[in-house]
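Lab notebook, design round three. We kept the backbone fixed and only want residue identities now. Task for the bench partner: fill in a sequence for the structure below.
Input structure tokens:
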């Protein structure tokens, strides 16, 4: 099932099968906003819920805690906690998700008390994102049910407030649609999503987006362009390799800030001749998460008409063991002329990203961001909830962490330890593709990538851990998360804003 979000009125909203009311926790229990209708679902809605009552009904203090009230033949009423303030965006995402889960396959309405919310646009966007992301289901594509946002106020909401709510509904809808699109690609079995098919799906989505150009490079072009890392990884597969080069430029020649995105698009990672275990391969259809994420972010930039230039580059290939596969000990020459000794064919992500980053540099952007399910070591270090962020400057780190705080996608800054450069020294090439066994594996991968950034402002996201989740929780659904897509969108939004100041 997937849902769509729309704005509606209290009268329309109250008729839907599930009607949701936000409540805020304080010392005496829960407070219900003044502007929420006095009667909903055939029940009188009080203005406060006592501590005792909440305890009996199981309504707890934490955000997204719910109590569900059913009267025969009436709409189900859900009180949902947004925490102890009306202004925490993550809590709105969690509340939206909790309500969507309560509603099951049916439509629901959410009453938004505009008089007590400082920033209705961002709150509504978060609410919509949470509800729509939680409604994703790989097995069900129909989108007959809706998520109605119902702005209410003690007095009539002002025109400005009304517009902000509309903007929040639109933004949340656009962002969640792109993230759910990426999740669907990531969850698709690798047998159904070859590099060629992935490129086709990306082209299909982006070709109708405004001011977007998409080029799909076939192997002939990839050879002409001398992408030796990408070719080396793909040569063991029967499926042809691709590279998608997409640009969004709403005002060519206007000197808009330019961000280049590079995403790892390994549609299946068997490890190659340095083959993984059966267990180790089970989730490897998700190894193209970076590619899906960067293309989703570019699509959002276009659909929200952000005044920023975006170049998104995604090398797409399958890492297999065919008779032409790259052998441990082989040396590959990357686009920028540097050579890499492949001592472990399972460290393939950095080989294709080296080519991707070299291309990104040539596009002359102000900032480069790459996203990859790069190392198991990242997941060991930070687990499923936190992505590893490597950044070339403190200023860019601050900006990117600010974007992450807004998106709710947790990142932790990791060090680019110069002393570990020795880990990737090679006897026969400029570098080797693995570091010291069991030592700082996520860092040595980042150090290798850094060599292809030409010392430009650069963010590297290693998202092997948070790229998928093993059980639905909050607004995440089991399987693909498309982690970091929303943070990149927040970053692009901030870059666009700062340019106008
Ligand atoms: N795609 C994997 C990383 C990965 C592991 C992502 C688990 C998600 C979950 C990557 O290509 C890989 O195999 N990395 C190796 C590198 C090693 C051989 C230096 C790893 O982490 O084991
Ligand atoms: Mn691998
Ligand atoms: Zn991989």
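Proposed sequence:
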């Amino acid at each position: 099932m997937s849902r769509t979000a729309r704005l509606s009125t209290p009268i329309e909203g109250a008729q839907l099968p599930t009607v949701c009311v936000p409540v805020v926790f304080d010392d005496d229990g829960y407070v219900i906003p003044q502007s929420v209708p006095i009667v909903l679902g055939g029940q009188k809605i009080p203005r406060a819920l006592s501590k005792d009552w909440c305890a009996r009904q199981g309504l707890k203090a934490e955000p997204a805690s719910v109590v569900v009230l059913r009267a025969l033949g009436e709409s189900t009423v859900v009180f949902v906690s947004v925490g102890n303030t009306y202004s925490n965006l993550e809590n709105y995402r969690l509340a939206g998700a909790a309500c969507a889960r309560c509603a099951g396959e049916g439509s629901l309405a959410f009453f938004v008390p505009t008089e007590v919310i400082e920033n209705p646009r961002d709150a509504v966007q978060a609410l919509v994102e949470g509800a729509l992301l939680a409604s994703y289901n790989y097995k069900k594509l129909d989108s007959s049910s809706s998520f109605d946002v119902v702005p209410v106020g003690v007095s009539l909401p002002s025109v400005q407030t009304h517009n902000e709510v509309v903007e929040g509904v639109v933004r949340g809808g656009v962002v969640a649609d792109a993230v759910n699109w990426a999740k669907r690609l990531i969850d698709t079995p690798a047998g159904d999503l070859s590099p060629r098919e992935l490129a086709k799906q990306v082209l299909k989505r982006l070709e109708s987006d405004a001011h977007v150009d998409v080029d799909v490079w076939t192997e002939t072009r990839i050879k002409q362009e001398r992408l030796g890392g990408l070719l080396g990884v793909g040569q063991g597969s029967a499926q042809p390799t691709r590279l998608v080069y997409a640009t969004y430029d709403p005002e060519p020649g206007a000197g808009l800030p330019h961000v280049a995105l590079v995403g790892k698009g390994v549609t299946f990672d068997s490890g190659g001749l340095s083959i993984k275990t059966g267990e180790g391969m089970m989730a490897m259809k998700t190894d193209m998460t970076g590619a899906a994420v960067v293309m989703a972010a570019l699509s959002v930039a276009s659909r929200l008409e952000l005044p920023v230039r975006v170049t998104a580059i995604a090398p797409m290939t399958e890492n297999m063991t065919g008779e032409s596969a790259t052998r441990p000990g082989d040396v590959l020459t990357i686009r920028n002329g540097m050579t890499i000794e492949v001592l472990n064919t399972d460290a393939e992500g950095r080989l294709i990203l080296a080519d991707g980053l070299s291309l990104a540099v040539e596009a002359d952007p102000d900032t480069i961001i790459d996203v990859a399910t790069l190392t198991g070591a990242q997941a060991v270090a930070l687990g499923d909830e936190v992505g590893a962020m490597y950044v070339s400057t403190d200023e860019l780190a601050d900006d990117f962490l600010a974007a992450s705080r807004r998106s709710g996608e947790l990142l932790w800054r990791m060090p680019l330890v110069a002393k570990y450069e020795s880990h990737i020294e090679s006897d026969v090439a400029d570098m080797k593709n693995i570091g010291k066994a069991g030592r700082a594996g996520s860092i040595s991968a980042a150090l290798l990538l850094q060599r292809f950034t030409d010392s430009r402002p650069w963010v590297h996201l290693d998202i092997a851990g948070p790229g998928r989740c093993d059980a639905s929780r909050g607004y995440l659904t089991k399987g693909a998360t498309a982690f970091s897509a929303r943070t990149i969108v927040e970053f692009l939004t901030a870059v666009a804003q700062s340019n106008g100041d």
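Keep this in mind before ordering anything: Residues 266, 269, 287, 348-349 surround zinc ion (ligand 3) (CB under 6 Å).
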